[in-house]
Design a protein that fits this description.
alpha/beta, eight-stranded parallel beta sheet, 17 strands, globular, binds nicotinamide-adenine-dinucleotide
Length: about 350
């Protein structure tokens, strides 16, 4: 009989099924709120991290990206794709998985699905940014693009900011109906709208999370009133934006990591030295977020590796004492570390 792998070979693996169980065990809103706190903590120690724009492999249909970072003790990476046309074939626009490893040995310590986790961390990051950038007492948000990310965005803004009303618009009414159905019973009052113009009425926060592989104009300048906070998450690839550039000229723009955002974000429409503020500087109090009630703030979100690092370390922490994972042997464990060939013989018939 084949010798069983030793403890050294095993790492916890969180399948999609187990991630779903973990999220419900904690509660979706509690998960989003706690994760927003963990992401904020990591933004507070921004200087501790290795940072690089993600490594993107572009094709006509979409993009496949690797997103690595490390704080010197733990290393993480995420594999993620973005394929707007997938939906028409019954596939998701975004799927992901990721890994945490110990820097001291290089050994992985967690492998997990990250499709759900990406939606959760993106929403938690949006809400964390809005806590610093939106007007105090904001209660109404517009959500334009009602796809996979939508409910997570709405629930994070509720959990972290106390948003009460959500106004939805999508070019596909079926997407809006799906979101209304999913948010029923959440405590949010939800209104489906027939246009973006109608959706943004009375909204203090406008989230755009559409998917289209082009320079789109989801919002135009005349739609944006004084004091609004725009949370733009769908413009996240070269050639893929959501806002008319005139909005940027009136707004103060906050970003995750400028070298990546200048390639992928809304600001790819602007000059390479277009002024932006890094969100971590707001979080640490080095600079201010919102100055007054008339300022237009824009979080030009593209998604950065440190947010995935935070999400992975949060999941690792929350897995302790649960059975929401399987142990899989992805590390070779020869009896003598130099005898890898000898280990291979364990499986010889
Ligand atoms: N910034 C980040 O960290 C981050 C993270 C995850 C996803 N994203 C991006 O967010 C976007 C949404 O992701 P998803 O997984 O929800 O995609 P999805 O394909 O599930 O949903 C996108 C929705 O946008 C709608 N839409 C497209 N064009 C529109 C328009 N002009 N007006 C209104 N609605 C429109 C589609 O009908 C669809 O329902 C994608 O572009 C994705 O790449 C960003």
């Amino acid at each position: 009989m084949l010798q069983a792998p030793s403890q050294k070979a095993l790492i916890p693996f969180v399948s999609v099924e187990n991630m779903m169980r973990l999220v419900h065990h904690i509660g979706v809103e509690a998960f989003l709120e706690e994760l927003a706190g963990v992401i904020e903590d990591d933004f507070r120690r921004w200087g501790a991290f290795d940072k690089t724009p993600r490594v993107a492999s572009h094709s006509r249909e979409g993009v496949i990206e690797l997103m690595p970072t490390s704080d010197g003790e733990i290393y993480s990476f995420k594999y993620v794709n973005g394929h707007p046309k997938n939906m028409a074939h019954g596939l998701q626009t975004v799927t992901a998985f990721g890994l945490l490893a110990e820097v001291s040995t290089g050994y992985p310590v967690l492998l997990t699905e990250m499709t759900l986790l990406t939606a959760l961390r993106t929403a938690a990051t949006s809400a964390m940014a809005a806590r610093h950038l939106a007007r105090n007492g904001a209660r109404t948000m517009a959500l334009i693009g009602n796809g996979a990310q939508a409910e997570f965005q709405a629930l994070a803004m509720k959990a972290v900011l106390g948003i009460e009303h959500v106004r939805l618009y999508d070019i596909d009414p079926a997407a809006t109906e799906k979101t209304i159905r999913n948010l029923a019973g959440s405590g949010l009052s939800v209104t489906g709208c027939r246009s973006s113009q109608a959706a943004i009425e009375g909204a203090e926060i406008i989230t755009t999370c559409t998917a289209d592989k082009q320079f789109a104009t989801i919002l135009t300048d005349n739609m944006i009133g004084a004091g609004v906070h725009i949370n733009a998450i769908g413009g996240d690839c070269p050639g893929k934006t959501e806002l008319h550039r005139d909005i940027l000229l009136r707004a103060d723009t906050f970003v995750e990591y400028p070298p990546q955002t200048r390639i992928e974000g809304e600001i790819q429409q602007m000059a390479p030295d277009y002024p932006v503020t890094e969100l971590w500087q707001v979080v640490t109090g080095l600079t201010h977020g919102r100055r007054d009630d008339r300022q237009i703030t824009l979080f030009d979100s593209v998604g950065f590796a440190i947010e995935d690092f935070s999400a992975l370390r949060y999941v690792r922490e929350r897995l302790r004492g649960t059975d929401f994972y399987q142990e899989i042997d992805i590390i070779a464990d020869p009896d003598d570390p130099r005898d890898l060939f000898g280990m291979l013989q364990r499986a010889k018939a």
